[in-house]
Fold:
Amino acid sequence: MEPLLDVALHEAEFLAIDTETNGLAGARCELTEVGAVLVGGGELHERFSALVRTELPLGRGVQRLTGITPAMLESAAEPTSVLAELERRLRGRVMVAHNAPFDRRVLRQAFARAGLEWPAPPTLCTAALARTLLPLQRERRLAALADALGIEVTSAHRALADAETCGRVFCALLPRLCAHAATIGEALALLARPRRRAAGKRGATSGRRAGSRGTSEDDSCSAVGAELRLSELPRDPGVYIFRDKRGLPLYVGKSISIRSRVRAHFAPSAPRASWRAHATSVDYSPTASELGALVLENRLIKRLRPPGNVRLARVDDRLCYVRCRLDIPFPVLEVASSPAAGHGVSVGPLHGRASAQELVEQLESIFGLRRCGRRLPRRLSPSIYGQLGRCLSPCLGDLDPNLYRRRLDDALALFTAGGDGRERLLGHVHAQMRAAAAAQRYERAAALRRRARRLERVLERLEGVLEATHTRPRLVLARHPLAPDGDLFWLVGGRVVDSARLRDCREQLLERTATALRRGVRARELGAQIPPGEVDEVRIVETYLASHPQTATLTLDPAPDRGELVAFVEAPLAAAPDGDGRAGSGKLTARTAARRPSRERRLAPG
Structure:
């Protein structure tokens, strides 16, 4: 077993096991069925299931619960052959079970009764995993835990079905486990029940942690069984992490004042959070702006997966993107709350989902694009839009893909040519109207005139810049609310390609900007590829800019020189400070304060 304990979690193989018994207690308990599923790489692989012949009769309750009858066991295999096969599958693997002590006791007893040696594999219990990694999940039955993790359970109370459910639950919890343990041995140590510490012997924390030390009431907040020292916390923007007595993260949050926000969690009027009862210390990481705190919070939640964070940093759901995934046959336009990952084009963010949806419908009619979902259905006859001439009908299977792609490229070119695409879209419709009139197709020209008027009203309601995100290279400077500092973000090719604190990179502004632009060129050559893991980060930055129009941005097309960069970072803060001396300390929502689209501004040197 010792070499197996040093194996990395992501390289190990696991065998999810479940057992059924005759329902009797103690030495009379006999194994009636065993199911096993091989788990590797976060997926389920080989299955094994077998009924086992017993000597003692089955209880009626067990028969009703499992559906196993005495007649089924009469023709079942001998325990020796079943257990030998199970031992072979366990060799070099980690056993996983739900309420593992029970299954381990049943198997150990069955091995002893059959005269075989119990292999004693290292064992992980999914119930213990949930207790450690999901402390807010009160119901830890296998079915309830699977439901909480979004796992569909179609069958239960049979060994193989429960073993598959156990394996899927383990796959769902494995990323959280890997965030806290690197090897099998560390995972077993993590799940071991800790000994109770004597009162008053809890040591003081070190580093950037406000721990549970003896403090006065003026600088501490009381939780259930914990006292959090707040005098060490700064008043800067940043991210804080509440931890339990084992040091495991419970909740990650951000604020423009770390000390004030941490204290607010324990105010009498604060909503009651389940993780507060487990919190004993708080770590913090200061940033130079609220935007920096938002981005860092998003990264830490993805890496630590704390149970108290149901969602990532909250953003206004009314902001949306018009996007097109180019990695599917006959791509479609769609309205979504985040930019497209991978090979695609995203326009936005925009304020007004209903108007954005109507804009997409107008573009589909103008260019004959299909309106069905990403999966292209096959039809024997055109849809109603195809019959009206508003769709090229690729669903019939006889359309040239190059023709469809040319139409799609014409539609996307309105937003990828640089600048706001409103005038280009209206100009395209007016050109069609004039061409129809010149050809004496007056009914067509009148319909296009009505479409142009409708488009004007839709575009007036739609707030935001109608330009593809990958065509807007920008340098964003989010200022510190009090100090002469800030966070810099380079947005090139629709991605956040670089970020840094202003005080740390004043001398390297020109070099880092040139490097960011080179990355953007490579991204354009790949078709504006956005990795899926960076989509949330792009959305957070873009939404912040839409919600904070006073945020300083510098256009990087054409590339600025050193003088322009120095003038940009040394320019005074545009927004006037609030009453408490803070500037631009708004929340991440696009309310009435952001009714106009955010425009980039170009700063001249000096």
Summary: Residues 195-227, 573-606 have pLDDT under 50 and may be disordered. The chain has four domains: 2-191, 209-304, 319-464, 472-594. The chain is about 35% helix and 20% strand.
